[in-house]
Specification:
The two termini are 33 Å apart. This protein is of the alpha/beta class. Strands 1-2-12-11-3-10-9 form a seven-stranded mixed beta sheet, sandwiched between helices. It is built from nine helices and 17 strands. 30% of the residues lie in helices and 24% in strands. The longest helix is centred in the last third of the chain and has 21 residues. The protein folds into two domains: 177 residues, P-loop containing nucleotide triphosphate hydrolases (Rossmann fold), CATH 3.40.50; 87 residues, Alpha-Beta Plaits (2-Layer Sandwich), CATH 3.30.70.
Length: 345
């Protein structure tokens, strides 16, 4: 199933991947790719994750191997010799690839959340042609950009990350395919919808191919619905309504107090103590508009240290912090303070 729109005369197809039975590329997408390759047309694939995959998952017990130092799944890459290796994208610890599940010893394991290198493999199998991957590690200097501009001319298929939200020089694709357009949409962060909207909106706005194919599991998400129609005004209206309901900026202030400790119990003890102190200050001064939420961040452990937040939300949060600092020395207690953060991750 797909939804078609034509904002500013551009053809945009929003493809519902829930109907595609675990396919990386929808049936409609595959048909368009084969046709455009046969006609010697140029295709740009955008996927907002580089390397191979987010991790592996056991199909029998659901186990996902994680970094021993950080609370994130081990990602998988291929080196220049086409060999797999695991890596943590926080601490850069490397791991040998798992041949079986460390939890139940099943060999029924597979990667999930396809990234650029895996997409390159799939396209090779589908078209028998090579594609070029462009990402920040190969395009972060003028000399590298110049070299890439020369390489681009030799490929019909280019795979890029958000780096290619804006057209590279001398490259006008005939078809643009956004794979996994909703990556990041379900991240528990007040800016998730905006970042998702921006990625798709800027792509459609700045390119002018014959068509855009946008693959998503959430075709009704307002960030994607309005981005695919280039409708910034309606997105802004719905986004502001959501933020007003949740008292997120600009309708309320935010601050994040982050604490880290290598010992988990000490982490809990410290968070509980400071939370109780803040609650006491809030009640003492009748500050009902202030909301306090002790909560773990998206990444609970990094570089061997456990992490926990106290989120402060409401009116005049900065004034409340100044008041609290008269009795709580946050720096001495080991807290980092982020006032008006760009995200809650």
């Amino acid at each position: 199933m797909y939804i078609q729109s034509q904002p500013q005369g551009k053809k945009v197809f929003l493809i519902d991947m829930k109907q595609e039975k675990d396919k990386v590329l929808a049936n409609l997408t595959q048909k368009w790719i084969k046709k455009y390759i046969k006609d010697w047309k140029k295709i740009l694939f955008l996927i907002n994750k580089k390397w191979y995959s987010s991790g592996i998952i056991c199909q029998d017990c659901g186990f996902v191997p994680k970094c021993s130092k950080c609370d994130i799944p081990i990602a998988y890459h291929k080196d220049n010799q086409n060999n797999f290796f695991g890596i943590c994208h926080i601490c850069n610890s490397t791991y040998q690839p798992f041949l079986s599940c460390p939890h139940c010893w099943s060999t029924n394991i597979k990667p999930y959340w396809i990234w650029t290198q895996k997409l390159q493999e799939i396209l090779k199998q589908l078209t028998n042609q090579s594609s070029l991957i462009i990402e920040s590690s190969v395009a972060n200097s003028p000399n590298k950009l110049k070299k890439i501009e020369q390489q681009i001319q030799n490929y019909q298929m280019i795979i890029g990350t958000s780096l290619l939200n804006f057209p590279p020089k001398n490259r006008k694709p005939d078809l643009i395919i956004i794979v996994n357009a909703d990556i990041g949409l379900n991240v528990p962060d007040f800016n998730a919808n905006y970042q998702n909207f921006l990625f798709v909106y800027q792509t459609i706005l700045h390119y002018d191919p014959k068509a855009f194919l946008i693959q998503t599991f959430h075709p009704q998400a307002y960030s994607l619905k309005y981005a695919s129609n280039l409708d910034f005004d309606w997105f802004k209206k719905e986004e502001l309504s959501y933020r007003q309901t949740m008292k997120y900026p600009p309708f309320g202030e935010l601050a994040v107090l982050l604490y880290k400790n290598e010992i988990e119990q000490k982490l809990f003890n410290k968070i509980n103590k400071i939370y109780q102190d803040l609650e006491y200050i809030k009640k003492q001064h009748n500050l009902e508009q202030i909301e306090l939420y002790p909560t773990p961040p998206l990444i609970y452990k990094a570089f061997g240290k456990y992490r926990y937040n106290i989120i402060i939300k409401g009116d005049k949060v900065e004034d409340f912090l100044h008041l609290a600092q008269k009795t709580i020395n946050f720096a001495k207690e080991g807290f980092q303070i982020d006032i008006n953060p760009v995200n809650l991750i």
